[in-house]
Structures are given as structure tokens and as C-alpha cells.
Amino acid sequence: MKVDIWSDVVCPWCYIGKRRFESALADFAHRDQVQVRWRSFELDATTRDRGEEDLTGRLARKYGISREQAGTMNSRVTTAAAAEGLQYRLDIARPTNTLDAHQLLHLAAEHGLQDQLKERLMAAYFTQGAALNDRETLLQLAEEVGLDRAAAAEALDQEAFVSAVREDETEAAQLGISGVPFFVIDGRLGVSGAQPPELFLEALGAAWNEAHPPPALNTIGGQGPNCEDGSCEIA
Q1: Contact residues for 112 (Cβ-Cβ < 8 A; gap 6+)
Q2: What are the pLDDT digits (tens) for 99-157?
Q3: Is residue 127 within 8 Å of 88, Cβ to Cβ?
Q4: Which residue has the higher pLDDT, 226 or 167?
Q5: Cis bond upstream, residue 215 (ω within 30)
Q6: Parallel, antiparallel, or unpaired for β 189-192 and 35-40?
Q7: Which of 61, 81, 214, 227 lies at 20 to 30 Å from 87 by C-alpha?
Q8: What totals of helices (H) and strands (E) does the chain contain, helices first?
């Protein structure tokens, strides 16, 4: 069974959703038969540099609210992250372009390292304030999870996966996905947002059962009421 997850590496609820989904998957009986693929989604593709604007300022500007209100929103998401074992440092995180990070995630997928790189990128951004539009930072993080640094640098130089990123985003638009995280389970069931693990587990079970219905039996012999005709019915 396949699970496609659209998300951005600078989306705070995406990291929380990742943890909650992982918790559900750990309890799923058929977890060894689940293939997870991270799909690209840029929350703000127009961002070109890290700049000096902090997340509170960006949030206030985006939604037309005060810095105080934006700070309250960040405090809430930080508390939610802590409940999942994530120690957010939104005070040192800065808005940044994520196109190159998504390119490297596609490269990592080719080498079976996509989940590892996704985790490292998110941890670097949300807990260490890493600049994910900085080439050397990206190459270092890629190398840490086992990607060849030279191959990663070449991929960025040649923009080798820009088309793959755009294809993911186009598919998201076609599916009506306007916010992330968004989970598509086995191409048949969508789950929007960082839902509780119980809901993810229920969705995984529903998709699995739909794809693997119990076999229909061709019965030979009669089944009479009570204990007649060689069988007993359930009362």
C-alpha cells in the first residue's frame, strides 16, 4: 500500500503530522507493506532569500494580524509540537525558499534515503534555525544522511529535479490540495492536516480493507435453521 504525503519542510504542522502519522504506522498491522513517498509542496514559492523577517512577522503579514496574535499562534504550534517530542525554536527560524530542498528530496528518493533527509531537513529548520536555501547547508545535511555530496551538488547545479517538484505541485492542484500536510492513502483516501494518530490508523485500516476484501466463498451443501442440514446457525 502506498501513502503519498504532500508537505513543505518549513511547514510546522507538517513536522507534527509526520510524527503523528509515524505513530499510527507503528501500530498498523501491515506497516511492513506500506510505502511512504514525500511529495513536494511549496508554501511560498515566491520567497527568494532568508532575509531578516522572522516567522512571527511573516505570519502577521500573511494573515493581516498583529505580531502579538501571530506570536500566540506560534506558541500554540510549539506546544503541539512538544506533545510529539519536537522542541521547536520558531524564534530562530526564518522564512526561506525550499525549492532546492525539495529537489534533494527527489534525489534522496532515488537512493532510498528520502525519509531520512525529510527528517533531517525539518529538524534542522525547526530546532536549529538552519537556512534551507543555503547551498552549503543543504549539501551538509544531505551528506549527513548518506547522500553523495558531489551528486547532490550536481543535481542542484543542473536543476535536475525542478520538473519533478513542479509535477508534484501540479498533481496537488489537480487533487484540490491547497494546504499541507495532506496524505493520500493508496490513491483512494485523503486525510487533510496533522490529524491524531487514531484517525491515521483508522484511515490506514479502511484503505487496506478496501484493497483487500475478504474472499467470497462458494458454499456446497445446505444451511438450514438451528442445527438442521449439518450446520448450526448463530442465534
Answers
A1: none
A2: 999 999 999 999 999 999 999 999 999 999 999 999 999 999 999 999 999 999 999 99
A3: yes
A4: 167
A5: no
A6: unpaired
A7: 61
A8: 9, 4
How far apart, in Å, do the first and last CA atoms of the chain sit?
38
Percent composition of the chain: helix, strand, coil (DSSP 3-state, to 5): 50, 10, 40
Cα radius of gyration rounded to whole Å, the chain:
22
Q: How confident is the model at residue 216 (pLDDT cuts 50, 70, 90)?
A: confident
Residue among 107, 108, 106 at smallest CA distance from 116:
108
Q: What domains are there in the chain, each with its CATH number? A: 2-211 (3.40.30.10)
Task: Name the grid cell of 57.
Answer: 512577522
Q: 228 falls in which pLDDT band (50, 70, 90)?
A: low
| CA proximity to 21, closest of 206, 209, 188, 199 | 199
**Sheet with 35-40, edge to edge strand ranges:** 35-40, 2-7, 182-185, 189-192
Whole-prediction pTM: 0.90
Nearest CA to 75 out of 93, 94, 88 is that of 88
Give Cα 113 distance to the centre of its chain: 15
